[in-house]
UniProtKB/TrEMBL annotation:
<feature type="domain" description="TerD">
    <location>
        <begin position="5"/>
        <end position="172"/>
    </location>
</feature>
<feature type="region of interest" description="Disordered">
    <location>
        <begin position="176"/>
        <end position="222"/>
    </location>
</feature>
<protein>
    <submittedName>
        <fullName>Tellurium resistance protein</fullName>
    </submittedName>
</protein>
<dbReference type="InterPro" id="IPR003325">
    <property type="entry name" value="TerD"/>
</dbReference>
<dbReference type="Pfam" id="PF02342">
    <property type="entry name" value="TerD"/>
</dbReference>
<dbReference type="InterPro" id="IPR051324">
    <property type="entry name" value="Stress/Tellurium_Resist"/>
</dbReference>
<feature type="compositionally biased region" description="Pro residues">
    <location>
        <begin position="182"/>
        <end position="220"/>
    </location>
</feature>
<dbReference type="InterPro" id="IPR017115">
    <property type="entry name" value="Tellurite_resistance_TerA"/>
</dbReference>
<comment type="similarity">
    <text>Belongs to the CAPAB/TerDEXZ family.</text>
</comment>
Length: 437
């Protein structure tokens, strides 16, 4: 369904009860704000809990019905994707709201804003709505899926909020964790003299009344509020403190979204979707680590060095995924509950086979702490014959965890492996032997 078949605002259409791919898209360019897709699962117009918001900091619903899959860029157009499986939506949920929030501007500055629904398995068009009347809004409800007599429909909505993702989320019942600022004391009214001091009475004042009994605590403690903030690293601002963001415990998940610019243009893919891009393309996410006790090593698929989360090195690679499944991909997880055991971790990616360099790839790196704000950044275009790229360096400075954007393409010398090239560039000082997987 092309733009010329776009649905009018307020109209609806039937959709199949199946797995669907929802693409929020716009044309990027200088001065165009970034945008982020989100979804809210509603029962009677409100969320049931804060877990019913799916977005970059909370990328999957517990039911498996909705998942945030991240951004792609191709031919000057950017899309942020949600995977919605209507067969897995819980019976209590009657509406799935599909929205977007602008980061660094308003939707009046975002050209060619649209939402397109596709069949997740076949890729065929299901519904599309092009929004053309945005002005000062910083959050926008583009569409929604809703139940009618046991079937699902899609409605083109096109209504915005000037209060961003926070306003959108709180309107549907989400509790948002935002810093609270104490209000300044009210100024004194001019021209009114201060009241005279009160003379203490001769008789002692009566004792204060007994304090009221504190209310009983709730039987079930409320969950932590949703944190909406995120951090984007750039060349000008390449580092961030995880400690200051509150991300110093739990699991830190690292992944890489990418797509090919030229010969495979339009085949946007999550990291590892090798089959869709090239039958023998195999990329490996890896990490060099140095622990506080001085021990060093590598976590990678090569040599089956997948690591471990609850014993040294407290880093784990989920597996070597060559199928390109959107639901899995390759994920590297760091256990921040053992942050004191780390000295530094360097996350990098190599081409194992299928291509000679990262030329023509467009990639975004996301570090998602279990607690605290997501950290993301884009890789620069690769213009050198590089089969290895240093992505991010995580350093424990003693009182802080710092994430540094590297985005550094390296060129191995003749006969030198990509892993040894990274080692030499960052002074790890390890001994290397040939490995296979």
């Amino acid at each position: 369904m092309g733009a010329d078949m776009s649905m009018p605002k307020g109209s609806n259409t039937a959709v199949p009860t199946t797995a669907l791919r929802v693409e929020v898209g716009w044309r990027g360019g200088p001065g165009v704000p970034d945008a982020d897709a989100s979804a809210l699962l509603l029962a009677g117009g409100k969320v049931r809990s804060d877990g019913d918001l799916v977005f970059y900091n909370q990328p999957a619903h517990s039911s498996g019905a909705v998942r945030h899959e991240g951004k792609r860029a191709a031919d000057g157009r950017v899309t942020d994707t949600l995977h919605v499986d209507l067969t897995r939506v819980e019976p209590a949920v009657d509406t799935v709201v599909l929205a977007a929030s602008a980061d660094g501007g308003t939707f009046g500055q975002v050209p060619e804003l649209s939402i397109e629904v596709k069949d997740a398995a076949q890729g065929g068009p299901v519904a599309r709505f092009d929004s053309a009347d945005a002005t000062v809004e910083t959050a926008f409800v583009l569409g929604e899926f809703y139940r009618r007599q046991g079937a699902w429909k899609f409605r083109a909505v096109g209504q915005g909020y000037s209060s961003g993702l926070q306003g959108l989320a709180t309107d549907f019942g989400i509790t948002v964790d935002e810093p609270q600022h104490a209000a300044p004391p009210p100024p004194s009214a001019p021209g009114i003299p201060a009241a005279p001091p009160v003379t203490a009475p001769d008789t002692p004042p009566p004792p204060p009344p007994a304090p009221a009994r504190a209310p009983a605590p709730p039987a079930v403690p409320s969950a932590a509020p949703v944190r909406l903030t995120k951090v984007t690293l750039t060349k000008a601002a390449p580092a961030v403190s995880l400690t200051k963001q509150g991300g110093t415990s739990g699991a830190l998940r690292v992944n890489l979204n990418w797509q090919v610019r030229k010969q495979f243009s339009g085949w946007g893919a999550k990291f590892g979707r090798a089959v869709a891009l090239h039958s023998d393309l195999d990329l490996d996410l890896c990490a060099l680590y140095e622990l506080a006790d001085g021990s060093k090593g590598v976590v990678q698929a090569l040599g089956n060095a997948f690591g471990a989360l609850h014993r040294p090195p407290y880093i784990h690679l989920d597996g070597d995924d060559r199928t390109g499944s959107v639901a899995t991909g390759e994920n590297l997880t760091v256990n921040l509950d053992f942050k004191d055991a780390f000295r530094r971790i360097l996350v990098f990616v190599t081409i194992y086979e299928g291509a000679r360099s990262f030329a023509d790839l467009n990639a975004t790196v996301t570090l998602q702490p279990q607690h605290g704000a997501a950290v993301d950044f884009s890789l620069d275009e690769c213009t050198v014959p590089s089969p290895v790229c240093a992505l991010a360096l995580i350093t424990n400075t003693g009182g802080d965890l710092i994430v540094q954007r590297e985005a550094r393409y390296l060129i191995p010398a003749h006969g030198v492996s990509p892993q040894r090239t990274v080692d030499q560039a960052y002074g790890w000082g390890m001994n290397w032997t040939p490995g296979r997987k």
